[in-house]
Amino acid sequence: MELTAIVLFLLALGVCVVSGASILYALVAGYIIFFGYGLLRHFTPAALLKMSWDGVATVKNILIVFILIGMITAVWRAAGTIPAIIYAAGNLIQPGAFLVITFLLNCLLSLLTGTSFGTAATIGVITMSIGNVMGISPVYLGGAILGGAFFGDRCSPMSTSALLTCTLTKTDIFTNIKLMAKNAAVPFLATCIIYGVLGRYGHAGAVDLQILNLFKDNFNLQGLTFLPALLIIVLSLFKVSVKKTMLASIVTASILCLTLQGVSTGHLLQILWNGYRANEPELAKMLNGGGIVSMFRALAIVGLSSSYSGIFAGTGLLDGVKHKIAGLAATCTPFGSTLLISFLTGMVACNQTLAIMLTHQLCAETIPDKQELALTLEDTTVLTAALIPWSIASAVPLTAVGAPALGIAAACYLYLQPLWSLTLHVVKKKA
Q1: Domain limits at 76?
Q2: Do the beta carbons of residue 90 and residue 133 sit within 8 Å?
Q3: How far is C-alpha 77 from the geometric centre of its chain's CA atoms?
Q4: Does one domain contain both 221 and 331?
Q5: Is the pTM of this model over 0.85?
Q6: Cα–Cα distances in angstroms (integers) from residue 274 to residues 278, 285, 298, 349, in the given order
Q7: How far is CA 379 from CA 38, 124, 207, 413, 425, in A?
Q8: What is the DSSP track for 16-68?
Q9: Is 193 within the bounds of a domain?
């Protein structure tokens, strides 16, 4: 019966992937299927609804952070924070080093915001536009953007995936970040070297940086515009909670909107809800976006899919799979088995959040140390979700920047980080 339920869900998922329909339809169908499975197992509707709510409750803080992300990505645009960062970074552009610069800029912004989607929609769009003018392959550019966006998604204190991981494993996010930073040094440097070589022997040409003057002409780019971003860094260093940190940045950016950029109170509220909308058409292509409304689809996908984990845990639907994973872990190390499972859960879940929750449910018993489990999830599921072509984790960022799906193949960091961690675990096992 368990197998039947899973196969039916996979069929619904397959139909959506092939037809191009929204993944939400598959997720709704999946909920009905798994709810029906619970009824056949003689669980009451009330009990199943409670299980669903328990699953959603696990990620309630993540859902709140999603709303804050929508607000912060909008108000940072309107306050001139993102334009100032992009304008300042634009002066660093060198054709031969542009792939490295693209990766580094996307790493920087994703570390500041914690959102791969927001990173791709801002600095990702800018770097892709400039790279296209230089004649750089959109596959390489897409890979550098995607890898950079998920570098911060993995280890930013603002990241919902990092928050979810520490919630599930009951670990401290700042301790996790410290360990992740140490473990990322080699893959990060290797990625920079690869992009450096590709850029050096590529055919990139000079670029007219007039596009960057749009920011200078349409925003007051005083030093104060960097303050909302600096607050994120400073408050995170002092281990202030993520929600408080984001709220402080939102309030500061809102004040800058009202005082520095001349935005009215009514317009500011509209920006926070609907996102930033520029009057200049060329600027609109690069900066439009953000707002609470922009997060509705992600909220629906994460909220609905997280209910699955409650049903799975309450009904024991995945218990049979757990025993097989234990045997797999003994063969290829617990990290190796988790890495394999992360690909499978990512393919099924179509989003990062459910993939993390399912992988945690399936693999937690093979890695009893909570700190090691947290780092393992960050080095596997958080990153591998972006390697699934039909997952929103990769599809949304690549679509936002106008890169082909093949850009996944050039996202070097997403491969190097799991492979490096796997190598370390294999060496440790043999020692």
Answers
A1: 60-293
A2: no
A3: 19
A4: no
A5: no
A6: 12, 16, 15, 28
A7: 33, 23, 36, 11, 12
A8: HHHHT--HHHHHHHHHHHHHHHHHHTT--HHHHHHHHHHHHHHTHHHHHHHHH
A9: yes
